[in-house]
Amino acid sequence: MNLAPHLASGRHAEDLALATLTAKGLRLMVRNYRCPQGELDLVMLDGETLVMVEVRFRRERGFGGGAESVNARKQQKLRHAAQHFLQQDARYRRQPLRFDVVAVSESADGKTQTDWIKDAFRAD
After folding, report:
1. What is the DSSP letter of 69?
2. Which residue, of 21, 45, 89, 97, has the greatest Cβ tally within 10 A?
3. Which CATH architecture fits 5-121?
4. Maximum average pLDDT range among 44-48, 69-73, 110-114
5. Where are the domains of the chain?
6. What tens digit of pLDDT does each residue of 24-69 get?
7. By the 8 A CB rule, do 85 and 43 touch?
8. Residue 17: its pLDDT value, please?
9. Cβ atoms of residues 26 and 51 within 8 Å
10. What is the pTM of this model?
11. CA 34 to chain centre
12. Whole-angstrom Cα distance, residue 99 to residue 88?
């Protein structure tokens, strides 16, 4: 299946983020969890901590990096999606919860940089 270029870039950024985080010892639980409240790109475990990971891709930094695009409104959507996830899967309700952002950027010469922002914002 051929994806639109922006979707293919997003998928590639998620693949890079997943590889980065699994190399750091996190375990993937769910990828692309969708619900009426929104989408969680990656749901992972870091030891006993449940980690909701938002992956952001920027080809150019002229409009700011990917991390800066996770504004208060986006954070609230992610919190609501996380609440939905926890309502659907009781196994994780008692575990600590963390929200991370992985910002993937590509420079003009095609080099990719991945920045992991651990505990980027709070659940409350």
Report:
1. G
2. 21
3. 3-Layer(aba) Sandwich (3.40)
4. 44-48
5. 5-121
6. 999 999 999 999 999 999 999 999 999 999 999 876 655 555 566 7
7. yes
8. 96
9. yes
10. 0.86
11. 13
12. 18
